[in-house]
Amino acid sequence: MVSLKELGERELVKNIRNIIRHPPGLGPGDDSAVIPYAGGDVVACVDSLTFDRHFPNGMTYEEFGWMAAAVSISDLASMGAEPVGLLAALTMPADLDSGSLYDIMAGMDACAEAFGTFVYGGDTKFGCGSLACTAIGSMNGRKPLLRSGAKPGDAVAVTGSLGSAAAEFVAIANGLDVRFPARPLMAPVPRVREGIALSASGAVTSCIDLSDGLAEGARSVCAASRVGIDIHSAFLPEGEGVETVSSAAGISKEEMMLYWGGDYELLFTFDKKKMESLYDRDVEFSVIGIVTNDDAPYINSEGIRKVMENGRH
Amino acid sequence: MVSLKELGERELVKNIRNIIRHPPGLGPGDDSAVIPYAGGDVVACVDSLTFDRHFPNGMTYEEFGWMAAAVSISDLASMGAEPVGLLAALTMPADLDSGSLYDIMAGMDACAEAFGTFVYGGDTKFGCGSLACTAIGSMNGRKPLLRSGAKPGDAVAVTGSLGSAAAEFVAIANGLDVRFPARPLMAPVPRVREGIALSASGAVTSCIDLSDGLAEGARSVCAASRVGIDIHSAFLPEGEGVETVSSAAGISKEEMMLYWGGDYELLFTFDKKKMESLYDRDVEFSVIGIVTNDDAPYINSEGIRKVMENGRH
After folding, report:
1. Which residue in A19, A20, A62 has the most chain B C-beta atoms within 10 A of its own C-beta, making it the best mutation to test that interface?
2. Does the CB of B106 have a partner CB in chain A at under 8 Å?
3. What ipTM does the predicted assembly reach?
């Protein structure tokens, strides 16, 4: 007998993949699955949030619903898919106020609306408080962006900026008086438009979302693509509030930008020869490093090169 | 403040539908949603099972996994859709033996295999023990079968037989020595082939699966189609074990066939003028009644006609 906790999530997921048959198309192992389908390829993914683990202090029920949708939509975005529908499976405590449940669904619907789609259905049961959001997307003829495909020499880039979600978390946990009007931690905005543009560019060789942090995302790309990545600290685009919170709480900016999750930006690699096509597409991104023929993600900071350890938070 | 329990599941679901925007295609309210999509229509649904409520005595972990897949696949079957992929969202107790989780996934994969499809992905989190299975299907150009569409004068029919799942439940609950080799309660077999044939026939005007029992299914068709249904007790196809368990436990056969769920047969209505096309398709079914211009489902038994109340189990 080995309990799930002893085994750990990563080992567990690996073992499950060895138990179930390997599907045609693209099965488990990337941000979303790609299901071969008569009229094209359906992209689909599911993610669960639980009241216990994903409902931090300061979050509203509406934000919890938004978050559930955003997490799954982000998994579509990292493939370059356009969301076409959401499904919600709720297990909710029988003594929950019904208004709280309506707020959750209103938040989920608001996120669906922000990305041009709808909540198509779902299921509600009494339980401990979990919300599994399935997101279904369409490639509209584009090729899906995978974690595999990065080649030595490709540039490494990231959309938007890093560390704001971590900064908001630290600010709340430490009672710091720093405002985050955009609510990066509580109501992240998945990079759908950017993902579609990246896949349409033909220049991008791999992509992943940064829900688990930059170090963890880079590690996944290295493993799937069998490459190394060298990132340069000086190039990291610093998110709002990172500087202030870093000083106030005594946590390094690099720590928040590399090792904390929650940013929902896209980390991607691209063929430098096709850079023009990428710059034509009106996507805001920063080049932060290069793909190497090593086998792990490294961070270069003030002349020191070290492996980025797995996400710590 | 009104708690979810005070409000009840039906009222809750109705209210949620008023909160979220109404999607194009077919949204909440039928067995599955139909999502308009570039290359055709994607059919999708999600259902959750929880350890607390859906893991009866005598069920194995493998059967729990099979059941989760079967319940969702049945929701595709009742639309006439062919399954093209499953996703699994698990929240599992951290102290669960990992072998039990593998059994769940093996059971889910076995059910996927039985219906020609695969588990394409999922998500595993620590939680109280819930499994949300998303099933994605394709109509392959056929028209989806809805709950609405039944017309007065249509015949009412049901696939397979009724009451075996209830009989197995009662047998286990009462420690009766009755064997159910097919495990109708623990490992139901959704009517996928039948659903596809029904939708291809062009004769079927409405359809629903009987997960919640015949009375409840008939009530849903009446409400969605704005019709009545008259069912004749003598025509009900009796499942294996129903007679034996009925005598041994002192529960009427009608009770088990009408009011208990778990049979996963399809209840459908069809245009009698197109009956030939239905009989050509090698589907085993029984005609059990007729659609009326009343507004509720009735059962006729030994000369007495009475409304079928909502499912009691």
Report:
1. A20
2. yes
3. 0.92
Helix axes A192-201, A61-77, angle to 10 degrees: 0
Domain range spanning residue B98?
Answer: 31-138
Instruction: Give residue for tokens 């009326």.
Output: B292
Alpha carbon distance B129, B100 (integer Å): 12
* Residue ending a domain, choose from B138, B167, B199: B138
Rounded Cα gap, residues A145 and A79, in angstroms: 4
Q: In whole angstroms, what is the distance from residue A95 CA to residue B287 CA?
A: 43
Rounded CA separation A47/A69 (Å): 9
User: Residues A211, A261: contact at Cβ < 8 Å?
Assistant: yes
Best A48, A52, A75 member to test B by mutation, with max B CBs in 10 Å, is: A48
> Which pair of structure tokens corresponds to residue B241?
């074990």
Token representation of residue B4: 């979810």
Interchain pair A125, B87: CB under 8 A: no
Is B16 a member of any domain?
no
Backbone angles phi, psi at B249, to 5 degrees: -100, -10
The CATH number assigned to the domain holding B171 equals 3.90.650.10
Least confident of A54-63, B38-47, B77-86: B38-47
Q: What is the pLDDT of residues B269-295, one digit of tens each?
A: 999 999 999 988 889 999 999 999 999
- Decide if B110 touches A, using CB distance below 8 A: no
Task: Give the residue among A160, A156, A173 at the shortest CA–CA distance from A59.
Answer: A173
Q: Is B56 on the interface with A (CB under 8 A)?
A: no
Give me the sign of the Cα torsion angle B100, B102, B103, B109. Answer: positive
CATH number of the structural domain spanning residue B84: 3.30.1330.10
pLDDT single digits (tens) A118-169: 999 999 999 999 999 999 999 988 999 999 999 999 999 999 999 999 999 9
- Taking the alpha carbons at both ends of chain B, their separation in whole angstroms is 28
- End-to-end Cα distance, chain A: 28
DSSP for B130-186, please give it. EEEEEEEEE-TTPPPP-SS---TT-EEEEES-BSHHHHHHHHHHTT-----TT-TTT
Tokens of residue A40, six digits: 């094209």
Half-sphere exposure of residue B114, counting CA atoms within 13 Å on the CB side? Answer: 18
Alpha carbon distance B195, B214 (integer Å): 17
Question: Over the stretch A47-83, which tens digit does the pLDDT of each residue have?
Answer: 999 999 899 888 999 999 999 999 999 999 999 999 9
- A125–B contact, CB cutoff 8 A: yes
Q: Is A10 on the interface with B (CB under 8 A)?
A: no
Please state, in angstroms and rounded to a whole number, the distance separating the CA atoms of residues A302 and A282.
32
- My answer on whether B183 and B125 are in the same domain is no
Residue where a domain stops, chosen among B138, B168, B199: B138
Nearest to B166 by CA among B57, B40, B299, B257: B257
| Chain position carrying tokens 């490709």 | A154
- In chain B, the number of structural domains is 2
